[in-house]
Amino acid sequence: MSKRIAEIREAIQRDSTRSAWERAVNAYALELIEDMPDDTEFYGSPADMKALLNGADTWTEYSEGGCSLIYDADIAERTCNPSELRRAQGGKRQPNSRESWLDVQARALHQAAIIIQRIARTPAAEEVLA
Fold first, then answer.
1. Do residues 103 and 68 make contact, with C-beta atoms less than 8 angstroms apart?
2. At 98, phi and psi to the nearest 5?
3. How confident is the model at residue 20 (pLDDT cuts 50, 70, 90)?
4. Is the pTM of this model over 0.85?
5. Can you point out the beta strands (E) in 27-128?
6. Where are the domains of the chain?
């Protein structure tokens, strides 16, 4: 099973999100595939998933290496709803006692990669009916 990047992008954009976190994860998913040509076949294989990491070994390394957002305020703005953003003082305060903003971003990037993989591996409606 595989999907073209254009199909994956469309599926992500069609996804109706309810929370700031879901919108952030979808934004990261779109970022991960933004430089890939639309006609590229994506299988969701381990090799494909490794390609999303852009040379990093983990999503933490990807995040800390500057491959995505680098400023706490930008990460907080993307991942938080307005009340959470106020509580975190726009990213000046850490999100919680166990994570930095880069850790939060790494978690969101990991979830984004899983979404991309799930979409790539899901059969199209016409394939299911055939």
1. no
2. -110, -15
3. very high
4. yes
5. 41-42
6. 3-129
